[in-house]
Design goal:
By secondary structure, this protein is an all-alpha fold. It has 15 helices and no strands. It is about 80% helix and about 0% strand.
Amino acid sequence: MPGVLVAATEFNHLIGQSSALMAAVTWATALVLFKRSGEHIEPIALNLFKNAIALVCLTATLAVGLVWAPAGALVWQGPAESAPEPLQNGEIALLLLSGIVGIALADTLVFAALRLTGVGLLTIAECTYTPFMVLFSWVLLSEQLGWVQGAGVVLILLAVLVASRHRPPTDRTPTQIALGIVLGIVAMGTMAWAIVVVTPLIRRYPLVPITTLRMAAGLGGLVLFMLLSGSLRTHLGVFRPTRVWRTAVPAALLGTYFSILFWTAGFKYTYTSVAAVLNQTSAIMACVLAAIFLHERLLLRHYLALAAAICGVLLVQFVDPAQQAAWQQALQTMLRPEQP
C-alpha cells in the first residue's frame, strides 16, 4: 500500500510539472500575439477581452461536464475519490479576492508594462516572478527548495537574463521604460501572492470550477472598475470584430483559457515553488518560437541560455528531496513491515 500511495503521489507531481511546462509554452506563444494585439488595443481593454473569452470557454467546459458523464467526473469532482465539501463563505471570498488581484489587476499591469517596454525588457521584469513565488510559498505554505533545486532556479533565471534582449525600444523615453519595468515587477508580486494564497483551496477542490470562479472575479473586477471610471462603453468596442481579432482571439485562447488551466494545474498537483520555476521557462520558449514562426535569428547566447534552462528544469523537476525521502520511507516500510 505505501508503494502504491507513493506512486500515485509521483504521478500527481508528473502531471503538475508537465502542466507547468505546458503553461509556459502556451503563455510564450500568446505573449507574441498579445504584443501585436496590444499595439492596437488599450491594456485594460485587452485584459477585458481575453478574460471574457476565457470565461465563456471555462463556462462551456463546465456545461460539457454536466451533460457528458465521463467529462463531468473530472470537471466537477476531479480525481479525488469523493466530492469535496462545499466551499465556505470565507473560502469563496478569498477566491474572489485572488481573481481580482491576480487577474484583473496583475494582468492589466502586465499589458501596460508590455506596451511601455516591449517583450524583451518585460521578460527581465518577469524574472522576479520566481523569487516572489518562492518567498510566498515559504511564508504562506512552509515550502522549501533543496540546494540542488535552488541551483536549478539560478540556472533558469540566468538563462532568462541571457536570452532576453536588453536593448530598450527606441520610441520610448527612459522614464517610460523605468515605469514599465516597475509595473512588471509589481504585476509579478501581485500575481504570485494571488495564486499562492489560494493554493490550499486549489488542491482541495476540482480544477475547472475553481479556475472559473477566479476568472469570473477577475472579469467582474475589471467591469466594476470601468463602470466607476466611466470607461466601460469605450472599452466595449474591443468586442467589435476587426482585423486585430486575428491575433487577439488566438492569444486569448492560448494565453488565458489553456494557459490558466495548465498554470493552475501545476500548483494543484506539485509543489508551488517547483511549478513557478518551470513557468519561468516561458521566456526561453518564446525565443525558440520566435525563431521557428517569425524566423528570428538565434544567436550563440540563445543556445547557451536554452542549454542552461534545460539543465535547470532537469534539476528542479527530477531532483526533489521530498519525493526522494518519500520513496526511501516507503521502501523501508516494505522491507521492514510492522510486526502484529
